Fold this protein.
Amino acid sequence: MFGLSMKTIYLLIPLSPLAGAIIAGLFGWKIGKVGAHVVTILGVTVSFVLSAFVVLPDVLAGHVFNGPVYTWGVSGNIPMEIGFLIDPLSALMMTVVSFVSLMVHIYTIGYMRDDPGYQRFFSYIALFTFSMLILVMSNNFLQLFFGWEAVGVMSYLLIGFWFTRESAIVANLKAFLVNRIGDFGFILGIAAIYYYFGTLDYGAVFAMAPQFTDKVVQVFPGLDWNVLTLIAILLFVGAMGKSAQVPLHVWLPDSMEGPTPISALIHAATMVTAGVFMVARMSPLYELSETALSVVIVIGAVTAISMALLGIVQNDIKRVVAYSTLSQLGYMMVALGASAYAAGIFHLMTHAFFKALLFLAAGSVIIALHHEQDMRKMGGLKKYMPITFITAWIGALALAGIPPFAGFFSKDMIIEAVHLSQVPGSGFAYIAVLSGVFVTALYTFRMLFLTFEGKPRMDEHALRHVKESPWVVTVPLILLAIPSFIIGALMVEPLLFENYFGDSIKVLAAHDVVAQLGRQYEGLWSFVSHALVSAPFLLAVGGIFTAWLLYIRYPHLPDLISKRTRMVYTILVNKYFADEFNNFVFAGGTRIFGRWLWKIGDVKLIDGLAVNGTARVIGWISAVIRHVQSGYVYHYAFAMILGLFLLITFFLHG
Amino acid sequence: MTFEMPNILPAVPEIFVFSMACVILIVDLFLSERRRIVSYLLAQATLIGAAILTFKLMVSEPVFTFSNMFVADRLADVLKLAIYAVTASVFVYSRDYLRTRGMYRGEYFVLGLFGVVGMMIIVSAGHFLTLYLGLELLALSLYAMVAFQRDSSQATEAAMKYFVLGAMASGMLLYGMSILYGVTGNLEIAAVRRALAGMDADNVMLIFGLVFVIVGIAFKLGAVPFHMWVPDVYHGAPTSVTLYIGTAPKLAAFALVIRLLIGGLENLAASWQDILVILAVLSMGVGNVIAIAQDNIKRMLAYSSISHMGFFLLGILSATPNGYSSAMFYVLIYAVMSLGSFGMIILLSRSGFEAERLEDFKGLNQRSPWYALLMLILMFSMAGVPPTVGFYAKLLVIQAVIGVGMVPLAIVAVLFAVIGAYYYLRIIKLMYFDEAEDKTPIVAGGDVRLLMGVNVMLLLAIMPWIGVIIDLCSQAIKQLS
């Protein structure tokens, strides 16, 4: 294309948003608001067009690229390379990331219109896009880690984008600290890979992995672990941080302090799915460790159901969507744990579209209500905001898993895959994801009903100003609604049953639930019609009906229920007391330990004795022996003679 | 007996510089104060010419001439080129300083060039006598330069001390050489080496001679306890002279060590290793510790130079080719750092103000962020903080010491480097965190400003080519044996 080699195109994809970010960031004051969004949108458009219309078809034609493009340095014998692995998996991710990012860029023009940090915001999100693309395109662990940390940094900066707000600063600090824990596991995993495999290149590691199935390592005395299990679990700890799995989920709800476009792009569609992507990318390692798969499926299932329950009791519209994101990430993890990597990535993709849509729709409501996020002060908005209303419905149906919307296919595939899976813990996971369907439908439609239906509950003044958002907001909504509607039906066959992923995902024959599904699968129509009488669909409809009963038909019921079940309600409203537990045990414990180290270790021993003590002694010595330098030449000469004398004596007798 | 014309070609650069120095001496007589720049330009032209000659005459294999009294090899070529470059920079930095203090006279350049000839002879010496000849030529030029500011009692006193002590050291060196001559029957370095190969290293006479020789060398290096002249001379001399003494002669001193101890007396390595360990530890200790108590930056840098010589000796005393080349790298880098540091003092000073007290650096960042940054890089490099090249210099010598199993010595060296970091960092603290007392803007000529920038940035920019320089050093060392 245009006479560019594929290598140049691969380079252009991450570098054009980077160029946009640099221009908008450093010269934003000069090019103004319009200039800033033009350059960044241009950069992301280049990425999207190249990913979707050049790289994706090329990959589908069978051209997989794996190689370094630039050697940055060599340390010891680890070459530190920038390299790309462009295969179906990464091509799909690139397309999804650049598409959602492009939508969010356009949406931001409307959402951030009056913000003084306009240029900074555009620079950040373009830089985020660059980092995320680097992460998914990487062909080695070092670059993966770079991308991993870079998206983390951008997430940190963007959560705290309104840095004058106390709550935003607390939230970004929290996100940072919790991710640190995850990243600690992640980098230990990478270190373990280098230690055992001697290389950080994906291809080489995957090729060697089968030789390590019997190798054990003593983690603690008397506790032998399989090396691959250890590596896989350490890497998964990283994924737990980034993809907000229980118990490292606490940062994601608070990250809603950032502007809504960020919640859509980073904390729903792309960055938080990096953990899912990573595990899928590492499928050749995870496949070799049943234990690790079991950990993944159990953690995923716990996240899926527990976070969905929290969604029911939230009143902040963005927080409902945030808990929904947590729960859906749990679903993806469950799919990975069941070895249905393709289903996990499929759900990742559909989720990226409909969740970005839901967030942006929520954002649209929030703008209309002048930054009011409490659903108790909404209601009856469907008259005033028809486009937002319809697109939000599409998003909600997709999330609840109603055919033929996108989420139905991906979620149904996950549930079926878990049903077939033999991994320890899959029985529990099946129950969790199945009951999760009901809860998902319930909280989704609760949100929808509270926002758009019923009587307006806001004050007169606010109601008078409610109007549909400008086109820069609604166009992305519409553009995201389209894939949320159709992409499931369109992609389910090629992605799952026609071996789209090829060699980029490796599944052992014994684990291959997707292939089993494929054998049962008899075409789209029979799949849909069969699903209409299956448990997940009925549960979803039940959830929607319950929501209708509670929030439209008998709106006084929810209060009654919460009063009757005081204890359950308290636990849910307080989010299982996870924050309190962390604050008390980890933060409090660390503070006590830190104070002890500070008072005893630092102030007394290190500062008092070691640092200031030696400094005082040396200062004193210095002050004393400088007097030897008396200034008299005969003293100097004497010192020389004495030195000579001592040296000779020493050597003639020594 | 027939007189054969020796091959003078390898010595052409020496002859050229010497002749030019004489020419400038005469030309200068006919120049008025306003035209003094002619002498300056001639001196610079001489150094450039010498560099071209040395470069053209560069040899791949060592060439001996004047009955083996003179040798031209890779070591000599590299060091000579470095000496020219450093001396030329010294002249650039000094010109304004001399002019504003009424010392802008041709003698400064002439003496400087004679000193250069002395250094060149040391560097190329193949014989104890040539070595001594070069040493004395250098020393005499230095004595005169220190006393250059005749009406300053401080400078005269410093020159007097330097002269008396220098004469003593010179006598000791000569005495040591004569003992070695008595034992081996030779003064030619290569012949001494051959003679020692068949001798018992524990010979009392040999050790006696060795100690005297080392005392002479230690004096030239300014290693403890033969360092007493260093602070007084650095402090007393005009800064432009301190700049000269503190840079190029260190390169010559390195050559002195290499030619004598390694070229001639390597078979006694077991003995001189022990002596050098003592000198190195004392130098690093005394240098770094006393530097803390100084409030005059020239004195502080003098003690700093003593401690750097201790580090430099670490490379030598490991007695391996690797160690020698790391010492050579160290001394080359030290010359650049020292050039920059004293250059900075000159740059900040003006007529009637010497900028040599530590307080004069207070708040430099407010007066000129650029110079403060340059000084920061210099101090970081001196202290051995990465990514400055000073770090690599220290790393290499310490590696050399560890390579021969002297781990305790390496630990001591690192500890003293930490102590040393204190007084370098203090300057940075003064520059960045204290209020400026003196708000006078800093004025300097374009050439000085440019050179200063290049000089300091070299300490960072050279990083990608460190390997090349280290290779150059190890090639030079390889030719010795």
Remarks:
- The beta strands of chain A are 65-75, 78-86, 216-220, 223-226.
- The CA atoms of residues 315 and 376 of chain A lie 7 Å apart.
- The interface with chain B takes residues 615, 618-619, 621-623, 625-626, 629, 631, 633, 635-637, 639-640, 642-644, 647-648, 650-652, 654 of chain A (CB under 8 Å).
- Chain A has 26 helices and four strands.
